[in-house]
Amino acid sequence: MTQNTGSEKMHADDVVVLVDFDGTITEEDVGVLLLKQYSTTDWERLEARFARGEVDIQQNMQQQFSYVQHDAAALIEYARTVVTIRPGWQEFVRYCSATGLKLAVVSGGLDFYVHGLLPLSNPPPDVHSLLAVYSTDAGGQVTLPDADDGDGEPEGFKEAVVRRYRRRYSHVWFIGNGVSDRGAARVADRLWAVEPLLSWCCANDINASSFKTFDDVREEFKALLARTDG
């Protein structure tokens, strides 16, 4: 299933590109890997509550990571041994910069591992993620980056970020993969998705382009801008 191209003219500086981190920029869900390795409770039971919409993303991560009794440095050290960045990411970042596309990372993960694993790029993308104050005594104390970045729904945080960028950009393009991306998927102008978000979009009649690597996305971006910028 693909997005409708439409006939509206757009230029690169009118577009913001928002990209999820866990399972999108990375091929694995970093939070899940850390919970599998270090959680001292049934984190999957907590995750199921989030998927059912019983808790929001902040509550979910707070509950799950309160049972991880390792400091941030140890978690990042482990993650670096098991996490793979999706092919084409660095080239995609350079393409957005050279083209004038605003690029930002919007993650329901924790800030310390997003920043710790995100490959260095120039210029670096803005990052919107959950904020964690981490200690081995109390686990992670998780907060949203801004008080109004959630509306009580699992996907409220990312949807709020999309709406905020819409005040400054005519077009919001979103790239994601999971449950926490559903709100953004509903309100973005264009969407690229991998599983399980792709199947959810199909089931809910939301147009989305599938991809495997960021090279795929970059080629579609080139075609879109060439078609509308002329």
Can you characterise this structure?
With 230 residues, the chain is of the alpha/beta class. The chain has a domain at 12-28 and 85-131 and 145-229: HAD superfamily/HAD-like (Rossmann fold), CATH 3.40.50.1000. The chain is 44% helix and 18% strand. It has helices spanning 21-25, 30-38, 43-51, 57-65, 72-82, 89-99, 111-117, 156-166, 182-187, 197-203, 214-229, and strands spanning 15-19, 102-110, 126-135, 139-143, 171-176, 190-193, 209-210. Strands 4-3-2-1-5-6-7 form a 7-stranded mixed beta sheet, sandwiched between helices. α7 (111-117) links the parallel β2 and β3. α3 packs antiparallel against α4 and α5 (72-82) crosses α7 (111-117). The radius of gyration is 17 Å and the shape is globular.
